Amino acid sequence: MTTLQKGPLIVTGASGQLGRQVIAKLIEAGAGPIIAITRSPEKLADLADKGVEARKGDFNDAATLGAAFAGGKRMLIISTDDLEPGKRLAAHSNAIAAAKEAGIEHIVYTSLVSPVAGNPVTFTPDHKDTEAMIMASGATYTILRNNLYADLLLMGGGQSIGMGQHFAAAAQGRTGYVTRADCARAAAVALMQETESRTLDITGPAAITQGDVAAIFSEISDKDIPYIPISNDDLRQAMVGNGLPDFMAVAFASFDEAMAQGYMDIASDDLAELTGEPGQSVRDFLIENKAALLAPPQH
Ligand SMILES: NC(=O)c1ccc[n+]([C@@H]2O[C@H](COP(=O)([O-])OP(=O)(O)OC[C@H]3O[C@@H](n4cnc5c(N)ncnc54)[C@H](OP(=O)(O)O)[C@@H]3O)[C@@H](O)[C@H]2O)c1
Q1: What CATH code is carried by the domain that includes residue 81?
Q2: Whose CA is nearest to atom 34 of ligand 1?
Q3: How confident is the model at residue 299 (pLDDT cuts 50, 70, 90)?
């Protein structure tokens, strides 16, 4: 039997895809009370019937956070989605200061694998420094270093299948892709149960190459889809050519560079140990989402 820690449990970023899945897991487990923080409380109107209190809070507007976090005991801080280096850190720093002020006892944070100097992912320092701030906050903590979402493969996968070629700038690097649903499971369990301070790698069961990804696309589409390794410059230029702003192309291409250099080559048992269940494999996830992968592109 696991022990549910007493709330109130605060979930920030509650209207995002991960936030909503975490809240669903908390409700399913009967944990609470649940306080959902979001910049857009109107998006959470459906949760009121389920006993969830939605409050407005914006990490970029520190004045909103005192009232938002008041009375909370344990908190999941979902990292923000800003791609410009430094912006996440400023936002997270406001959240951590307000959490301290509100007397939060345990903080769960969604970080990224390998938040170390040298990792080319452009916002690595934001995660690294946020982790350090949480560790120094006085609260106990669970740092969840999520690997790349397998869900991201659904975005480019349709295109690879359509073109009959899977382009990436990851060389032969491996990635321990994890599904967003598994990240939500980990975050919910940590928020409900963890009491010690721990840093965990939340990953899928195996780290795979882009060649392996292409082989799964081939299997699903019943076509031969080879992996075509390209240079990071070519990847960035292709993204800009497709209309992506330069700073976004730089950020996304930095993931491929991190893969190429081995920073995403992390597959750990931490998810299974934390939740009692291993993560879903990329192959099973992509097969489950075959219809989305094979759907004609939306224009
Ligand atoms: N590991 C990976 O591969 C991967 C991939 C994508 C993203 N991520 C990270 O994981 C997080 C959750 O993923 P997701 O799939 O749920 O992303 P998402 O659906 O794009 O949601 C973005 C989240 O950021 C929150 N946010 C943005 N600006 C904020 C601010 N100023 N103050 C407070 N919250 C703010 C949003 O909260 P509200 O809109 O409710 O205020 C929302 O929860 C992302 O924000 C990002 O940091 C990881």
Answers
A1: 3.40.50.720
A2: 13
A3: low
- Over residues 212-232, the mean pLDDT reads 98
CA distances from 184 to 16, 119, 134, 233 (A): 11, 25, 20, 34
Q: Could you tell me if the CB of 152 is within 6 A of ligand 1?
A: yes
Does residue 248 lie in a domain region?
no
44, 81, 149, best to mutate for ligand 1 pocket (most atoms within 8 Å of CB): 81
Q: What is the identity of the amino acid at 251?
A: A
Contacts with 184 (C-beta within 8 Å, 6 or more apart), sequence order: 18, 21, 22, 24, 25
CA–CA dist 192, 122 (Å, integer)? 32
User: Virtual CA dihedral for 66, 67, 72, 74, nearest 10 degrees?
Assistant: -50
Domain extent at residue 91 = 9-146+179-202+267-280
| pLDDT value, residue 259 | 98
Distance CA 198, CA 214 (A): 35
Cα(151) to ligand 1 centroid in Å equals 14
Look at residue 165 and tell me if it is in a domain. no
pTM over 0.90: yes
